[in-house]
Amino acid sequence: MDNISETVSLIHRGCNLARDLESNLPNLPSRPETVSKSLDEIIRVFGAARERLQSSSAAQHDPMSSYVHVAQQQQQIDASLHEWLRCNYTQAMEDLHIQTQRFASEKSIAATQTDMRDSGADVLHGQIHQAIVSHELNAASSSQSRPRRRRDDGEIRKLTVPAPRIGNTEIPPEDGFTWRKYGQKEIMGCRFPRGYYRCTHQKLYNCPAKKQVQRLDNDPLTFEVMYRGDHTCHMSSTAPSSLPPSDQIKQETMTQTHAVTTQPLGTWLSMDFNARGGGSSSGGRGDGDGDGVGTSITTTTRYGKDVEFPVVDLADAMFNSGSSSSNSMDFMFTSSMDSKWESGDKKN
DNA sequence: TCCATTTGACCACG
DNA sequence: CGTGGTCAAATGGA
Fold this sequence. Notes:
The structure is a single chain. By secondary structure, the chain is α+β, with helices and mostly antiparallel strands. Among the domains are: 1-58; 156-228, WRKY domain (N-terminal domain of TfIIb, Single Sheet). The chain has helices at 3-24, 32-56, 63-87, 89-113, 121-142, 202-205, 245-253, 263-276, 310-320, 326-333, 340-343; strands at 156-162, 179-185, 194-199, 210-215, 222-228. β4 and β5 form a beta hairpin. α1 crosses α4. The N and C termini lie far apart (54 Å). The relative contact order is 0.14. The structure holds a DNA duplex.
């Protein structure tokens, strides 16, 4: 496959999406969610194109460098964004959709007209999501919500990610780690139960990482994921689990303040990657440590074992499907509101 | 048989 | 005492 032509087609797709968005702008006040999702997709497409460009040029000799670069961008954006939100939190909530929309639109158009060396749009989008939930979390913990009991887990990183549209939309989004579910609970005031997961290698490697996954009340196609504790399993040379390079790089230098910045890229990658697999049932076992990255993606798929640089694999994944990102398109715009979790709810 | 998920019960915290 | 987090037995798939 010709990398350039694929990239070009991706850019074209982004342009089309941008045009669609433009025509949809009058609906912004009434349907901010739809517009927001449209933005997501635009950002995603252009981001993929940029990644492709980077991976085919500078990153060729050192694929890690692009990750480092993006990570650094993220750090900078994160700092300013947090500062901005601190000063304008309530207003920020109001302005969020407009801000992202403007940014993405301008970014998208500019990127197609000039070059795409400085994307950051996807990064910013992730930052906005995370900064907001982070602030929500801070606000909540300082007022209504009681602090978490298990203090040994340390900081909490919270983010929102779109649900995989293909297959079971109720499965938690892929994030590159292997998780084992150990509980599910109805939460007061929430329509959907919260799932509790811990690292599959908790026993083997004493990995304290945990996560909680919950669907948003107002948007069942969006998950809110809370990460608690850091993975130690990937530190071990014998550990079967490994991280996407970006995560791995940053995990080691991550501070509590910036911990929240770790996820977007990894999540972004994994979401798209997940789409390639055509989704999978959560009934899968992830089973032995042998099933790594492949066409069959389970809830516990991970990158590192067989794939050196997931961004390359991601790019392939996004283009090998022929229809390019149609999968993610569907998952963005198709609303399949199945909620098996609801039917499976129990007391407690 | 192994391992992941389910799910009712238990427990810590405020 | 209510709620959220975790445990662990039961269950089931490969």
